[in-house]
UniProtKB/TrEMBL annotation:
Domain MotA/TolQ/ExbB proton channel residue range list: 105-211
Membrane topology, record value: Multi-pass membrane protein
Description of how the protein assembles with itself and partners: The accessory proteins ExbB and ExbD seem to form a complex with TonB.
Annotated organism of origin: Thauera linaloolentis (strain DSM 12138 / JCM 21573 / CCUG 41526 / CIP 105981 / IAM 15112 / NBRC 102519 / 47Lol)
PANTHER family: BIOPOLYMER TRANSPORT PROTEIN EXBB, PROTEIN TOLQ
Gene Ontology terms: biological process: protein import
Role of this protein: Involved in the TonB-dependent energy-dependent transport of various receptor-bound substrates. Protects ExbD from proteolytic degradation and functionally stabilizes TonB.
Localization terms from the record: Cell inner membrane; Membrane
Protein known as: Biopolymer transport protein ExbB
Keywords: Cell inner membrane, Cell membrane, Membrane, Protein transport, Transmembrane, Transmembrane helix, Transport
Family: Belongs to the exbB/tolQ family.
GO cellular component: plasma membrane
Major localisation: membrane
Amino acid sequence: METTQAFGLAHLWAQSDAVIRAVALILLLMSIMSWYLILVRGLRQLRTRRHAGAIEAFWTAPNLDAGLKRLSDQAPDSSFEALAQQGAAAAQHLRRHPANETLGSKLDTDEVITRALRKSIALSTAGLESGMTVLASIGSTAPFVGLFGTVWGIYHALVNISVSGMATLDKVAGPVGEALIMTAFGLFVAIPAVLAYNAVTRANRVELSELDAFAHDLQAWFSTGARIAPVSVQAANDRSPAISTAPANGAA
């Protein structure tokens, strides 16, 4: 019983060298960074879900200023608010600077608004992808860092055993088992990072698709003064001409 209690994390840290301790600190730092990003992204996704009705509230507003106010109230500091504000700023710039002989004013109105919306989407995409590289790196490298700590720990334990000259099972199993803790620690760091990366990537893809659809509607509204009405598949089929399957006259 005393021998069993002598082994564990405390004993591993006490008898380990600088390499094992450095690996453990690196994995601890990776874990802190990973969970920080997971919490930040999780809170952002919760805020994004609360903004689900903001786009519809924008389109039901009586005018552009009221729509922007609704976005600012219901989805503050969101990608959708930034997109609408950028499009409105581009349209206002065109109104303040009508066409003249300067090079910049010769751009088509639709092109100016489209570029402004694309710039906003690019900035939003960069914000959504911030920290994703860190999560992916932690998820892919943490197991190997832990494995390196295990290999080094086993080597260190075997050297100590060979020096002492006592290679019995109880003398080998303890140090080797402690070294394997580093592999478990690496997996403990990597698995949440990989799962979070996959979940955040899917959420970002959904948000970018919604943002792209909102940008198309904004571009149409600023260009024509009307939003492109969404059409369901059933409505499209109802409006399409029916294809007759009856045989032609004279056919057998």
